[in-house]
Specification:
This protein has about 90 residues and is an all-alpha fold. The chain is elongated.
């Protein structure tokens, strides 16, 4: 198994951000909730990895900022969909 590098990890976060921008428009509420939980779980794993690799404070801060931005996007989409009610499930 190929080891994960810090650069790969940060690249993955950037890719997640781009994917989130597209997905959140079409995902229903329950999927957004699941996505939020998955992102938090993956962020925790990544943080453990970075600490284990003795990543610099700058890398850790960058990782934390990107994770926070990704979670904020998901949470905002979730809040917007909640405000819209059940439009996804109702009369069309």
């Amino acid at each position: 198994m190929k080891p994960i590098t810090v650069e790969t990890l940060l690249g993955t976060l950037t890719a997640q951000s781009a994917l989130l921008s597209s997905l959140i428009r079409v995902l229903p509420l329950d999927a957004l909730r699941t996505l939020e939980a998955d992102l938090m779980r993956e962020a925790q794993k990544a943080n453990v990895y970075l600490v284990g690799q003795a990543a610099s404070a700058e890398v850790l801060e960058s990782h934390d900022e990107q994770v926070a931005a990704n979670l904020a996007v998901v949470r905002e989409a979730y809040a917007q969909k909640e405000r819209q009610g059940t439009n996804d499930n109702g009369g069309g």
